Amino acid sequence: MENNKNLPIRHDQLATGTSLIEFKNVYKSYGSNKVLNGISFTVKRGENLVILGKSGSGKSVAVKCLVGLTKVDKGEIFISGEDITKLNEEDLNRIRMKIGFLFQNGALYDSMTVRENLIFTLQHNQKNLTEQEMESAVKEALQNVGLEEAIDQLPAELSGGMRKRIGLARALIIKPEIIIYDEPTGGLDTITAREIIELIRNIGLKYNTSSIIITHDLTCAKYTGDRVIVLKDGLIKAEGSYKDIENNADDWVKSFFEK
């Protein structure tokens, strides 16, 4: 990414709070395919954790386990001190309302305007809001991503970068404690990717959210992550700051940085 010297690296300011998310010895298989093989890690309040890994390494399955979309075979996953592996669907939904998602493709409803997309998400998470309260929440979310002028547009009228930012506004509108970013800079040009990186950083600082960022983009990992873990075959191969990972002596980890 060009002109990135003005972006301080977040891992120089590591979060020191209590753990909001904790994986303890988590296993998950699909038939004979062992996807997670006893992974353990934490995410502190206000911390951005980047998960690096090649296709099939277990990144997406770890996130599905985190939100209870797939059941673990063994192990525990704590969110705010509650083991979500032992919760029923009603209690899982309560936990999910603390989590915002930025999907790789934005995942907006094509037939709805930007306003309607955001209100749909807000109504799903918060009942009995007045029209004025919803409109205020929509405008605040759009201000956070710099797209107030897009409020009445349809997704098809927006660029890929704008759709990604609207997707982020939709994640923010529920005021989540946790945000999960799935390839947030995937498919974007260099300038737009830089804008998304800055938004991720600024949102974390403004709202003290805890984030898990799944990415193949090393620049995104470098400038958004307080800490990075590298998955290989469902195991944590390396963990530390971006600089730690970049200087890791393991040949497989080094392969991420080969041009």
TrEMBL record:
Superkingdom of origin organism: Bacteria
Example GO molecular function: ATP hydrolysis activity
Keywords, sorted A to Z: ATP-binding, Nucleotide-binding, Transport
Domain (ABC transporter): residue spans on this chain: 21-258
SMART domains in the cross-refs: AAA (SM00382)
Transmembrane segments: none
PANTHER family attached to this UniProt entry: PROTEIN TRIGALACTOSYLDIACYLGLYCEROL 3, CHLOROPLASTIC (PTHR43023)
Protein name: ABC transporter ATP-binding protein
Lineage: Bacteria, Pseudomonadati, Bacteroidota, Flavobacteriia, Flavobacteriales
